[in-house]
Design goal:
By secondary structure, the protein is of the alpha/beta class. The protein has 2 domains: 132 residues, Oxidized Rhodanese, domain 1 (3-Layer(aba) Sandwich), CATH 3.40.250.10; 119 residues, Oxidized Rhodanese, domain 1 (3-Layer(aba) Sandwich), CATH 3.40.250.10. The protein has 10 helices and 12 strands. β11, α9 and β12 form a beta-alpha-beta unit. α4 crosses α9.
Length: 293
């Protein structure tokens, strides 16, 4: 890369200046949960020039096992290494992930997966594809590919926690659990995705959207730090767990914390869609710990 790597967010201006850099890979992660075929379709119609495509369901998630996993389980280790190798990500590659306007969600998933796999030089394009096109920057169409590389993983398994760990710390004051879903879903209202409404008992409501300004860009670092320091209640990132509906949106909150300089909270990858599979796990619907933004 020849310079200090970008590790959280990157501007359209800096990304533009490296379009022709062979050590940089741009990855289009656009995804629509209501229409999974839309992401690949939109990519083929128009994307950042030179970008390759990663599908949230097929590339960035593992196999769904009925009665055992949530909606977007983590990929198998060998599988994600193969995906990153196919995308042309080597040891010295700077990766830039992007998706749509305010929904830097699937891009944050790719960002988190690379951190989990031990690759630090990865950043999310602030403002996404909408910011890119609004600036009149170069786009391409059709499908593009890169020469495959050999991705070398050094998995940081401590960045992810399972349901058993979450259960073990629910009443431990040294830990905090953050719910990254919208506040109404946290309260058990307007649940249209998962069959059971509510939240993990004791979890603090910290909607991922609170990290964004009205322009769809992430808020300044100082604001993000105040936001998440309040949500964490004085705990450090290593004693904070973030979850959402299926473990994807929560990565957006982990990214916001990292950009604020607070470190990487633990991700409960199974999240709510996995939590509710086991009828023995407790749920809550009271808004008593709902943080008001």
């Amino acid at each position: 890369m020849g310079s200090v790597p970008h590790t959280t967010l990157i501007s359209t201006t800096i990304a533009r200046d490296h379009l022709a850099d062979p050590d940089w890979v741009l990855v289009d992660c656009r995804f629509d949960i209501r229409d999974p075929a839309r992401g690949p379709r939109d990519y083929r119609a128009s994307h950042i020039r030179g970008a390759v495509f990663a599908d949230l369901d097929k590339d960035l998630s593992g196999h769904i096992i009925s009665g055992r996993t949530g909606r977007h389980p983590l990929p198998e280790l060998e599988s994600i290494v193969q995906v990153f190798s196919r995308l042309g990500i080597g040891p010295k590659t700077q990766v830039i992930a992007y998706d749509e306007f305010t929904s830097a969600i699937a891009a944050a998933r790719l960002w988190w997966l690379l951190k989990w796999a031990g690759h630090d030089a990865v950043a999310v394009l602030d403002g996404g594809f909408k910011a890119w096109t609004a600036a009149g920057l170069p786009c391409g169409s059709g499908s593009e590919s890169r020469r495959p590389s050999r991705f070398v993983a050094a998995f940081r398994h401590d960045l992810a926690v399972d349901a058993r760990h979450v259960l073990s710390v629910l009443e431990d004051p040294a830990w905090v659990v953050l719910d990254a879903r919208a506040a109404d879903r946290y309260r058990g209202e307007n649940e249209t995705i998962d069959p059971v409404a509510g939240h993990i008992p004791g979890a603090v409501s910290a909607p991922y959207g609170s990290a964004l300004g009205p322009d769809g860009l992430f808020k300044p670092r100082t604001e993000l730090a105040r936001l998440y320091e309040t949500a964490m209640g004085g705990r450090d990132a290593e004693h904070s767990i973030v979850y959402c509906g299926s473990g994807v949106t929560a990565a957006h909150s982990v990214l916001a914390c990292a950009h604020a300089g607070l470190g990487l909270p633990r991700l409960y990858a199974g999240s709510w869609s996995e939590w509710i599979i086991d009828k023995g796990r407790p749920i809550a619907r009271e808004p008593s710990v709902d943080r008001k933004d």
